[in-house]
From TrEMBL, chain A:
The chain crosses the membrane at residues 29-56, 244-265, 296-314, 320-340, 347-377, 397-419, 448-473, 479-502, 514-539, 559-580, 587-606. Keywords: Hydrolase, Membrane, Metalloprotease, Protease, Transmembrane, Transmembrane helix. This is PrsW family intramembrane metalloprotease. GO terms for molecular function: metallopeptidase activity. Residues 168-234 are annotated as: Disordered. Residues 176-194 have a biased composition (Basic and acidic residues). Residues 195-215 have a biased composition (Polar residues).
From TrEMBL, chain B:
One of its GO terms (molecular function) is ATP binding. Coiled coil: none annotated. InterPro entries: AAA+_ATPase, ABC_transporter-like_ATP-bd, ABC_transporter-like_CS, ABC_transporter_ATP-binding, P-loop_NTPase. The keyword Hydrolase does not apply. The keyword Zinc-finger does not apply. PROSITE patterns: ABC_TRANSPORTER_1 (PS00211), ABC_TRANSPORTER_2 (PS50893). The lineage of its organism: Archaea, Methanobacteriati, Methanobacteriota, Stenosarchaea group, Halobacteria. Keywords: ATP-binding, Nucleotide-binding, Transport. Belongs to the ABC transporter superfamily. Residues 2-229 form the ABC transporter domain. This is ABC transporter ATP-binding protein. PANTHER family: ABC TRANSPORTER ATP-BINDING PROTEIN, ABC TRANSPORTER ATP-BINDING PROTEIN NATA. Transmembrane segments: none annotated.
Length: 612, 306
């Protein structure tokens, strides 16, 4: 980019900022800031006080208890219970729910009103007593005395009973490929060396928690603290490794992005309303510079806010690295949405769809951060790991972020293709404009091959999403559905731009041309798909579902070569089928797509059956 | 200054512009007229590099229309020029001056001078709060921020009140006087007739006439000389007679000035008086109607010259 272009980019970005600031008057801005601060304060309060920190049931039960009574501190420290001097008349009137009385410090009397509220108050009191006891034990200087029995907990990966998985399990029943458990199986040695620090009382020399907690975080008793809470307790308090607090904090990164994309989408659509952007197009500024200049302030705002959040919640560069592709994905999808929408009403629908889809896509897998590597399909998992104190390997980072970054670049390129006079001011439906956007990128066989390859990150994301969605389904059901879904996704990716080219009269409808386009697309897809081998960096193909989606491993060289060339033939043949159908109207293309998907799914089935 | 060769634009099976060729000399005001959908705006946008031609070429000030460098020499005023309404005229013009790499001092001096000439007083008011005429003046000023050699004005006076229209037309003449080359498209044929040196008429994507107004009249129009007299020589047949009781008026028509002089002589010699002598020429509108068979949107009838 030349110095002049940079200067222009800066000027457009500066203008975009001043416009963004200018459209909101000072009073509105002040109200907005106050609302934001209040919201932030509430969210921060919830987070910093633990999930249960805001007690809407504060002091709902009145307990009659003397200050000398040993149960007084239990009541006094409870948010639900309020302590009052015991008064039997008040109990009879219902003004007190429970009375606790001590006689000679030996005998404790409990009395409730006998009503439903009295029973509930009694139950609440019992729970508070348990919690009080836990706190007392946790604060005991001599932890060995407090917890004379230690239990190490190891959360193991759920093995799918494929031959390989079973063989691997038999070969080394103590090892695990689950990255979450790395370092978790060495609790014994940790205890010996005293290296374990979770909840450890240095002077006691006793270990209060298993090594499991080192990598996957402490047993996540909900509401016990921002980063995991207590490391010890009675067996009843031990819960599965659900990273609630980290997830909650990771979700905070997504909230401001929803506001940023609203403003960004509006500014893009604003250029298209009444041909407002025409004058920028006729100025000596390239499309790329205009788009970059208009996007830069929103990217900076998104990253800036996420950076502040990262600092506030204790995240580091890893969190920023995880958030960056999410910001890019939000902006790029919104940019395309802004270029396709015909009105602000339609844009609202588009941005809400984008917001829901991306939030779901990044948030749901992150829930399984401590359970399965599939969680790494979401860059938010990298953030969750960071907030849990886990470092992501370079492979994990690339696996999580590269598809998002490449996908975002492709989306920006698609939108930029129609950022021109001929396309940006037309009032076409979103599917029609989408075809325009694809068509704008095409020129010949090479461009078809290039765009097929560029679709592979989306194929990757869609397939991983399908895997994640089908993860919980029985394998007998999930594998066939997955085979068909993956076949359909790949056939669409190989043919949709060819269809767009034909619909916009870009290509000659002669059969040899269609076959040539199919060959170019199929071969390009094959080559690009092999780059998905990056998935193996994190061992995803070790899952049976992953094997269905990607190249199987562990075969003889001959079979490997055969299985290498077979998909090439498959992709080329099915792409030719769809390219022939794409020459005609939508129904014919749909039929060709259906046939190609069936052929592809059948091939997948044969390969999986053979391999199994 | 501008050369257009076999310019074509197709959208699928629809041909918006079919093989247009013309050239515009430096310092000329060149008009483009035609009915709606004739391909005028598409042609202008291809010349300005906004639309990629399907065929042919256009060069402006020696640069191909697709060359980004060409835009430094061009000032384009589209038919609709919605502005960024949250900006003021000053901030708007300086923003564009920056994009054109115009030094700040020079930009300020130039835009202020243009706004002075266009009599735009409110320069720090939000554009959204301004009238259509004021906004049009700002748009015209924007087309000049880079001091371009070539200006393309698509319907510059469309929808403006007569006062503002006159200001715009006068300003366009001043631009010509300052040596600028202007392509001027308008539906109002009177405007075109009054300021353009040459013009083309487009219809259904094609140029159907090209030349000066006079050339077009000669080629496609008519001119006649009308004489109203009080006396009817016996050897002449009047084209029309108006009998008002005690007196009559007779209309005689000659195709050439020489014939008209002969007629006048005959009438005078026969004792008649010449009541009126006028030249009736085809207007641009009548030529336009003759050629296209369609009335011009927003056109008006032009009276004959006396």
């Amino acid at each position: 980019m030349s110095r002049r272009s940079l200067r222009q980019l800066h000027r457009i970005a500066q203008w975009e900022v001043s416009r963004g600031v200018g459209v909101i008057d000072r009073k509105t801005a002040a109200v907005g800031v106050i609302l934001l601060l209040l919201t932030g304060g509430v969210v921060g309060g919830v987070v910093m006080s633990g999930a249960g920190g805001v007690a809407i049931d504060r002091d709902i039960y009145r307990v009659g208890v003397d200050t000398e009574n040993p149960y007084y501190p239990v009541v006094a420290q409870s948010s639900q219970l309020s302590a009052h001097p015991p008064d039997h008349e008040a109990l009879a009137r219902g003004d007190q729910d429970v009375i606790i009385e001590a006689f000679d410090d030996q005998f404790i009397s409990w009395q409730t009103t006998g009503t439903e509220k009295g029973d509930a108050a009694h139950a609440a009191l019992l729970s508070e007593i348990d919690r009080y006891n836990e706190r007392q034990m946790a604060s005991e200087p001599n932890q060995t005395a407090a917890y004379p029995v230690l239990v190490d907990i190891q959360y193991l990966t759920r093995f799918v009973d494929t031959p390989e998985a079973l063989a691997a399990a038999q070969a080394d029943d103590t090892s695990t490929s689950d990255r979450d458990l790395e370092g978790d199986t060495d609790s014994g040695s940790d205890r010996d060396t005293g290296a374990e620090t979770n909840g450890e009382q240095p002077d006691s020399g006793a270990e209060t928690s298993g090594g499991t907690d080192t990598a996957s975080g402490p047993p996540p008793a909900i509401g016990t603290g921002v980063f995991g809470g207590e490391q010890s307790g009675s067996p009843a308090t031990i819960q599965p490794p659900f990273p609630f607090s980290s997830l909650l904090l990771a979700f905070v990164f997504l909230i401001p992005l929803n506001f940023v994309i609203q403003a960004y989408g509006s500014t893009i659509l604003n250029e298209r309303i009444n041909r407002r952007g025409e004058l920028l197009l006729v100025a000596p500024v390239s499309r790329r510079t205009i788009i970059a200049g208009k996007t830069l302030p929103y990217f900076t705002a998104g990253m800036g806010v996420c950076g502040i959040i990262a600092v506030a919640v204790g995240g580091g560069l890893q969190s920023i690295a995880g958030v960056l592709p999410i910001v890019l994905a939000f902006l790029s999808a919104t940019f395309v949405g802004g270029m396709l929408a015909r009105s602000f009403k339609e844009l609202t629908f588009v941005t809400v769809t984008i917001s829901v889809f991306i939030t779901t896509y990044v948030f749901v897998p992150a829930i399984f951060t401590n359970v399965t590597p599939i969680a790494l399909i979401s860059p938010l998992t990298i953030v969750v790991m960071d907030l849990q104190g886990q470092s992501a390997t370079m492979g994990e980072l690339l696996f999580s972020t590269v598809p998002f970054v490449v996908g975002s670049v492709v989306l920006f390129a698609l939108g930029a293709g129609i950022y021109r006079e001929e396309d940006m001011f037309t009032q076409k439906s979103i599917p029609d404009k989408f075809l325009d956007a694809l068509n704008a990128q095409l020129s010949g066989y090479r461009s078809v091959a290039l765009w097929t390859a560029l679709f592979v990150p989306f194929v990757f994301v869609a397939e991983l999403l399908a895997i994640a969605v089908l993860f919980v389904a029985p394998i007998e059901l999930s594998i066939p559905i997955l085979l068909i879904t993956i076949a359909a996704i790949e056939e669409i990716a190989k043919s949709i731009h060819i269809y767009a080219g034909y619909q916009r009269a870009r290509f000659d409808r002669a059969l040899p041309v269609a076959l040539g386009l199919g060959i170019a697309s199929g071969a390009a897809f094959f080559v690009a798909e092999k780059f998905t081998a990056i998935a193996q960096v994190v061992g995803l193909p070790e899952l049976a579902l992953g094997q269905a989606a990607f190249a199987p491993v562990g075969l003889t060289p001959t079979l490997t070569i055969g299985l290498l060339l077979a998909p090439l033939a498959l992709h080329v043949v099915t792409a030719m089928i769809t390219a022939i159908g794409a020459r005609d109207r939508r129904l014919v293309y749909g039929s060709a797509l259906f046939i190609a998907t069936l052929v592809h799914a059948l091939y997948n089935y044969v390969v999986v059956t053979f391999y199994a | 200054m501008i050369r257009v060769d076999e310019l074509q634009k197709s959208y699928g099976d629809f041909a918006a512009v079919v093989g247009s060729s013309f050239s515009v000399d430096a310092g000329e005001i060149f008009g483009i007229v035609g009915p709606n959908g004739a391909g005028k705006t598409t042609t202008l946008k291809m010349i300005s590099g906004l639309i990629e031609p399907s065929g042919g070429s256009a060069t402006v000030a020696g640069f191909d229309a697709s060359d980004p460098e060409m835009r430094q020499s061009l000032g384009f005023l589209p038919e609709e020029s919605p502005l960024y309404e949250d900006m003021t005229p000053r901030s708007y013009l300086r923003f564009f001056a920056d994009l054109y790499d115009v030094p700040r001092e020079e930009a300020i001096a130039r835009t202020e001078a243009t706004l002075d000439r266009l009599e735009l007083e409110y320069r720090d008011r939000r554009l959204g709060d301004m009238s259509k005429g004021m906004k049009r003046k700002v748009a015209i000023a924007r087309s000049l921020v880079n001091d371009p050699a070539v200006l393309i004005y698509d319907e510059p006076a469309s929808g403006l009140d007569p006062l503002t229209t006159n200001t715009v037309l006068a300003f366009t003449r001043e631009l010509k006087a300052a040596g600028k080359t202007v392509i001027f498209s308008a539906h109002n044929l009177y405007h075109v007739e009054s300021i353009c040196d040459r013009l083309i008429i487009m219809n259904e994507g094609q140029i159907i006439a090209n030349g000066s107004i006079s050339d077009l009249r000669d080629e496609y129009g008519t001119r006649e000389y009308q004489i109203w007299a009080t006396h009817c020589p016996t050897d002449l047949d009047p084209a029309e007679t108006i009998d008002s009781g005690d007196s009559s008026s007779y209309l005689y028509i000659a195709d050439t000035l020489e014939d008209a002089d002969l007629l006048r002589e005959k009438i005078t010699r026969a004792g008649g008086d010449i009541l009126d002598f006028r030249t009736e020429e085809s207007t641009l509108e009548s030529i336009f109607l003759e050629l296209t068979g369609k009335p011009m949107a927003g056109s008006r009838t032009i009276g004959g010259s006396k």
